[in-house]
Amino acid sequence: MERGPRDPLVETGVPTSDWEAAFEAVPRHLFLPEVMWPATEEGHITVSRADDPDGWWRWANADVPIVTQWDDGRHTGSAPGALATSSSSMPTAVLLMFDELSVFDGAKVLEIGTGTGWCAALLSARLGEANVVSVELDETVADTARKALNVAGRHPKIVTGDGLLGWPEGAPYDRVLVTVGVHEVPRAWIEQTRPGGVIVMPWGTRYSGQNAIVRLAVADDGTAGGRFSRATRFMHVRSQRLEWPEFDDYLPGEGWPADTRRSVTGLSAAQIVDESDYAASDFAISLLLPDCVRTFARSPQGLQTMWLFGLTDRSWATVYFDEDDSSQVYQGGPRSLWDEVETAHRWWVERGRPGHEEFGLTVTADGRQEVWLGEPSAPVPCVASAVR
Ligand SMILES: C[S@@+](CC[C@H](N)C(=O)[O-])C[C@H]1O[C@@H](n2cnc3c(N)ncnc32)[C@H](O)[C@@H]1O
């Protein structure tokens, strides 16, 4: 039984713009496996088409990301695995990225991260399959996508390989759509895009695992730059995944290390991340502290504890949040990471609490990444040097 190929977009009321016909022509469910793991408020759940056909259709038509591979394919069984490594992106996220891409008839597009093949099929429906190339690192994922594309009657070029290298054979491209998160923009994408062309991708520092969609316009001089639009959360390219710090490397032995510095803070967890988990304050802090990671421990009452770990040295910090403006702070190592977060937060407040869309990114001709606020001539400072 076929049920409502456009339901995810219709239900959310997101305007479907000039992509409407493509979304109608290419139903998402053709690209979903028999067993899949949609994201819910409580985490990922297993949905099997054989065991629960109604549930499968409901989730296939829902506006949620659906994991289709765990642990680079080493996962077995039907329970969710440890790390989501391939997925069908959330339909509204796909549409918003397509809108950012601002394609025109006949535009030649390179997609990085084929995944299920659904985006490549949508691009093919909109632009013609001869204009679409998509690169997927994982051989099994790429093969599965090719099969689904065949069933859907679409035949874009699917390349198995490292998308960080682009696909020079098909260059130059008018548009590059990246459906997997990056910390560093590879020069190859810029070099393979026509001057005046556009690259859209989820980009973020290692601080939070979050990213924001950025739209880079490629200039004649080999630079690329543009603004962020909104927060998102995409899995990262395989080689830029975060190696999560080992707690014992930072705090060896029992109890607090001898150099632990204690203080209190009036800054609350809600001022940093708010309920959405996609707060502009958190994004701003991530830009000022690109060389550290943060994590939160939550309780049913909300955020309880925040941890920060330096990525370039063994600095660490933790905050036990309480209700009365006097949360306990413990910090150790050469840097005082919590002090840096406070400085970064103050910097953001003093600039009028700018949203994601006020920040931008430039990639220089020699590959350096410069984040800015308002305009390219106003770089966002790295906070570490200011507070040491
Ligand atoms: C979120 S999924 C893409 C979703 C896809 N656009 C769709 O419509 O289903 C991200 C994909 O990027 C792939 N990937 C990760 N690192 C990559 C790399 N270096 N080059 C190409 N693909 C990569 C993953 O294997 C995964 O399939």
TrEMBL record:
Its EC number is 2.1.1.77. Transmembrane segments: none annotated. Keywords: Cytoplasm, Methyltransferase, S-adenosyl-L-methionine, Transferase. One of its GO terms (molecular function) is methyltransferase activity. Gene3D superfamilies: Vaccinia Virus protein VP39 (3.40.50.150). It is found in: Cytoplasm. Pfam families: PCMT. The keyword ATP-binding does not apply. GO terms for biological process: methylation. InterPro entries: PCMT, SAM-dependent_MTases_sf. Belongs to the methyltransferase superfamily. L-isoaspartyl/D-aspartyl protein methyltransferase family. This is Protein-L-isoaspartate O-methyltransferase.
